[in-house]
Amino acid sequence: MVSQTQPVLILKGLLTFSVIATLIHFTDNYLYFEHYPQPAWISQFGIIRTWFLWTATGVLGYWFYKNQRFMLAQLCLLIYAFCGLSSLGHYLYGSMAEFSPKMHVLILADGLAGAGILGFVLWSFFFIERRIKTQS
């Protein structure tokens, strides 16, 4: 049996990891903008603005989830999952050799964080949400 608090604690841990991973990577991307292979339409200001918008969406998703507003939570968290997953897009714009080891670690940590959030949303949608509702 899954208690109502277990998924919330799991989401909190995943979200904390994701916020930290994306903050470090997006800050590095901002500071070393010219070293990151990326599309021409991305700007330094856009990187910072996007991080704040995505992170606010993720935190809002957490709040909705904690308050059992599952549909809104899942929508916000799906959008937020893209924050980490989109970092893998760097690899579409440069060869592996163009990235420093630090860049690889930061990009992969972001991707892992996004995959974790996406996995949580799917897990919640198919398993947890229904159990919590039937226990209430």
How does the helix and strand content classify structurally? Answer: mainly alpha
State the total count of DSSP E strands. Answer: 0
Q: Please, what is the average pLDDT?
A: 91
Q: List the secondary-structure elements in sequence, H or E.
A: HHHH
**Major sheet characteristics:** none
Percent range for helical residues?
over 70%
Report what the structure shows.
- By secondary structure, the chain is mainly alpha-helical.
- The chain has one domain (5-135).
- It is built from four helices and no strands.
- The protein has helices at 5-31, 44-66, 70-85, 101-135.
- Helix 1 (5-31) packs antiparallel against helix 4 and helix 2 runs antiparallel to helix 3 (70-85).
- The longest helix is centred in the last third of the chain and has 35 residues, at 101-135.
Summarize the structure.
With about 140 residues, the chain is mostly helical.
Salient structural properties:
136 residues, mainly alpha, 74% helix, 0% strand
Strand and helix layout:
Layout: H1 5-31, H2 44-66, H3 70-85, H4 101-135
Helix pairs in contact: 1-2, 1-4, 2-3, 3-4
